[in-house]
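DM from R.C. (forwarded with permission)

"hey, sorry to bug you on a friday — could you get me a structure for this? deadline for the figure draft is monday and I only need the backbone to look sensible"
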Amino acid sequence: MSMYVVGHKIPDSDSICGAIALAYLKNQIGEPAIAARLGELSPETAFILEKFGFEAPEYKTSYAGEEVYIVDHSEITQAPDDIAQATIVGIVDHHKLGDLTTSTPLECWIRPVGCSNTVIKMMYDFYQVKIPANIAGIMMCAILSDTVIFKSPTCTTADIRCVEALAEIAGVEDFKEVGMDMFKVKSAVEGTPARDLVMRDFKDFNMNGNLVGIGQLEVIDLAVFDDIKADLEADIAKLKVEGNRHSVLLLLTDIMKEGSEMLVVSDSADLTERAYGKPTVDGRVWLDGVLSRKKQVVPALQDAFQKV
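My reply, with the result:
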């Protein structure tokens, strides 16, 4: 029986490219695997897959009775809804350890790096499996995306070295140019419905029993949101009610200015002041130097909820 390799709900480039890269590796070492996804491709991910000649992985939402290798998360809220009825055989991730549990031993590759694909590159090295040029290309792009072309505080020396090695395998001469092309695709928001934008890179977190949704949109210039910011604010308010969430936050990240404007709807009026030392004014707060949801946004929020 083949295992399914799948990332989180509302998959980003790391989840999709990681599932493809890890499934290939597993097949090469005699462990049958199928890449899968829990949602639609983002425009950036579609751009990456088209650039290197890949189709989207199989769309599959039910995994009861299946063997599953989890990519890019270890949170129940981000996993398949029926993950409790599946057998988790492995996890590869670069986030904090979440609340997924298993009844049997499993393989875990979890490292404090900027991207799951960096960890997967380490796995290829460990098993001494040659990486095909097209897979190297999508892995490189996933790392560039997650590390914001090395600008993110999550970026490590390992991420940079992996990108350099993968670019050479893929035959990419200027990987930073490819990275900018990816972020130009991300910045093209005109004509896209507000809900599609809010959910483009959105994750739910259980914070001390409170459901908190955090979305992020990374662009080259925040001016692209000038005409639609009110629509985004109205939509995250709806999303909060629809999901019975305590809070919904949307990060509008300017990768050139290296900071984020956070749009906030919350049951706690002082949430951002407790978490970041900056009050929310009219539902908005600017967080200078904040690029990473994983390292700069989530931990401070979790601390704030623990102190309630």
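R.C.: lifesaver. The domain at 3-184 is CATH 3.90.1640.10 (inorganic pyrophosphatase (n-terminal core)).
me: no worries. The CA atoms of residues 217 and 252 lie 5 Å apart.
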